[in-house]
Amino acid sequence: MTTTLKVALLGAGTVGAEVARILRQDHEVLQEKTGAALELSHVVVRNTEADRGPWIDRGIISDDASAAIADADLVIELMGGIEPAKTYIVEALSAGKDVVTGNKALIAESGAELNALARKKGAQLFYEAAVAGAIPILRPIYESLAGDNITSVMGIVNGSTNYILDKMDREGASLEAVMEEASAFGYLEADPSADVDGHDAAAKAAILATYAFGTPYTIDEVYTEGIRSVTAADVKAAQENNQVIKLLAIVNKTETGVSMRVHPALISREHPLAAVHGAFNAVFVEAENAGQLMFYGAGAGGAPTASAVMGDVVTAVRQRINGTALQPFTLPEGLPALTIDETVTRYTIGIEVEDTTGVLARIAQTFAQHGVSIESMKQESLAATDTENSGEPRALLRLITHAAQESGFTATVEDLKKLDVVRGISSVLRVEGGEA
To answer: Can you give the pTM of this predicted structure?
Structure first.
C-alpha cells in the first residue's frame, strides 16, 4: 500500500508556485521516485484572496502556518527573510517534521542552530536551493567529495550582478546604464542593494564555507564588497590585459584559518568562470584529489530553483520512507574565520601620477616598504583634457602585484596617496584564479 505524505508549502511566490506545479503535474513520477504519494495539502500565504494559478486549489490556501505545519508530514519554506520563516521552521523541526527551504539569509545566519535542532529532534533539514538555484553544489560537496580535502570554492552566485558586469564587458556601457536596463528587465529589485552590494552572494559564501570546511560560519564573517565602484575604464583595462571582472564569492582554506569574501575581481579570460555569461551562475571547486571541478547552470528563476527544492523533497521522502533519514551533520568548531586583512591574494591598482623623472622609483619604493612585490606595470600618458591641472604632464600607471597580504597592500595604498607625485588612485581590484 502506497504511503501518502502531506506537504505544507509556506509561500507561493515565483518559486513556490513552480513547486506547487511540479507537485501536482508530476505527481505520478514523484510517486515512482519516492515510493510515496505527495499530497499538497496546505499552501500558506499572506494574501489568501489572490489568484494563485491553476495548480493551487483555493480550498488548501490559508494564512495559518501553525495549523498547516501541525497537519503536514513535510514542510517546504519559501517565504524568505528571517522572520516569521525561522519561527515556522523551528516549529516544524521541533515536531520532528522534515523541512526543505531555499532561505539563504536564514541559513547563513542561523544554519548551525537549525541543523542542531533537526538532529536533536530526528528531523531532516535541506537547503540546496539556497546557494545556486538549479545548480547542485551542497550535496556534491557534502557527499561526493566527502572523502577529499577541499581547498577552495570560488563562484559566481548572483545572476543579477553577473548580467551587469557581462553587459559592461560586451558593450562598454557604464554601470549606471546597465543597472537601469537590468531593472527594466526584472534582473534587479526596486532596491538593488542585496545584489549590487554583495549581500546575497555573501550569504551563499557563508553556506559554501560551512559545507566545504565543516565548521559553522555566518554571513557576519564574510568580507563583503559590491560592484558599485566598477567603472567602464576598469572593464576596458581588464580587456587590454586579457581579463574580465566578475563578482566572486570566494572561500579558501589556509593553515591558519578560512578566508571568506565577496568582491569584484579580475580573472583571466582563460579561466572557466570567465565564460559564464548573462544571469547564469557557476561554482568552481578545487580539491586535493579531485582537482578542479565546475558546476554551471541557472542560478535563479522560478522553475530552476524549484528543481533544486524538489530534489531535496525527493531525497527527504526517500530517506524517511526507507528509514534512513539523514541527520544533519554536526559542525565542530574548526578553523577560525580570517579577517580581510589576513587574506593573501594579488591586486591591480591604477595610479595617476606626475609624468616626471624619479616617479617610478618612489612608487616602487613605497610598495617595497610594505613587502608588496610588483609583478607587472603599464604606463599610459594622460592628455591635458584628462587632468584637473591642464598642461601638467601626467601618466596613469596600472600595476599588478604578486600575492600579498591585504593589510600590507592596504598600507601601501594609503602611503601612495601621501606622495606629492601621486594625483589620485583611479581603481583598486583584486586578481583571482591564478596567473593572468
So the answer is: 0.93
Please indicate, yes or no, if residue 88 is contained in any of the structural domains. Answer: yes
Q: What is the rounded CA–CA span in Å between residue 156 and residue 134? A: 14
The C-alpha atoms of residue 207 and residue 323 are separated, in whole angstroms, by: 27
Q: Which amino acid is at 357?
A: T
CA distance 103 to 85: 8
Q: Quick check: 399 and 372 in contact, CB under 8 A? A: no
Candidate list 204, 246, 253, 417, residue with the active-site label? 204
Question: Any catalytic annotation for residue 97?
Answer: no
Are 279 and 312 members of one domain? Answer: no
Q: Distance (Å, rounded) from C-alpha 169 to C-alpha 218?
A: 32
Domain containing 308 — which CATH number? 3.40.50.720
Angle between helices 27-34 and 302-321 (to 10 degrees): 40
Q: Are residues 309 and 390 in the same domain?
A: no
214-254 pLDDT, tens digit per residue, is: 899 999 999 999 999 999 999 999 999 999 999 999 999 99
Could you give phi then psi for residue 129, rounded to 5 degrees? -70, -5
Q: 235: domain CATH number?
A: 3.30.360.10
| Backbone CA torsion sign across 179, 182, 188, 194 | negative
d(CA 39, CA 27): 8
112 and 199 together in one domain: no
What is the residue range of 369's domain?
A: 340-431
How many domains are there within the chain? 3
Q: From the centroid of its chain, how far is CA 275? A: 17
